Amino acid sequence: MRMIRWIVAAALLAAPAGAEDYEKGPNGGLMLDVAGIDAELLTSGSTVTINVFEAFKAKPVSTKGYVGAVLISGGAARETVTLSPQGENSLKGEAKNPIPAGATITLTIKTTEGKSGQAKFKK
After folding, report:
1. How far apart are CA 119 and CA 2, in angstroms?
2. Handedness of CA 53, 54, 60, 65 (dihedral sign)
3. Alpha helices in the chain (DSSP H)
4. Average pLDDT of the chain?
5. Per DSSP, what are the bridge partners of residue 37?
6. pTM here?
7. N or C terminus: fewer CB in 10 A for the chain?
8. Do 105 and 48 touch, CB atoms closer than 8 A?
């Protein structure tokens, strides 16, 4: 019985953030805390941009050495896009097709300090 409680507690703590947990980022995108940083999602056409800031601050963090990818799920379509450092504090990638409204975008990120995490954004 004790093991079941631990499993349920771990599942609840690992559950993705809901829409009410989003913050508005400095660039107007959806922002969530992940891997010790704040990640702001911006999309335009088929481009995915993740801007990285210090946790709970709007201070940009260098993405040099960061590794990231997003899984874009919209309807029956799913696509994984690798993100590369772009500019001072951004990770950017190109999907094969435009990102549909209502798509779920799951970010997986690893910082230069070795912290990793996952966040789920619902457009």
Report:
1. 29
2. negative
3. 2-14
4. 87
5. 34, 54
6. 0.82
7. N
8. yes
Give dist(CA 68, CA 55) in Å, integer: 18
Predicted pLDDT of residue 19: 44
> Residue 91, class by beta-carbon neighbours within 10 Å (0-12 exposed, 13-18 middle, 19+ buried)?
buried
Number of domains, the chain: 1
Which residues, other chains included, contact 39 with Cβ-Cβ below 8 Å and sequence gap of 6+? Answer: 31, 32, 33, 50, 51, 52, 107, 109, 119
Tokens representing 105 are: 């975008």
The CATH number given to whatever domain includes residue 116 is: 2.60.40
Any idea which residue has 């029956």 for tokens?
76
Q: What angle do CA 67, 54, 60 make, to 5 degrees?
A: 80
Element holding 20 (H helix, E strand): none
Half-sphere CA count of 42, side-chain side, radius 13 A: 15
- Determine the pLDDT at residue 10: 47
Q: What are phi and psi of 20, to 5 degrees?
A: -70, -10
Q: What residues make up the domain containing 63?
A: 2-122
- State how far the Cα of 49 lies from the Cα of 3, in Å rounded to an integer: 40
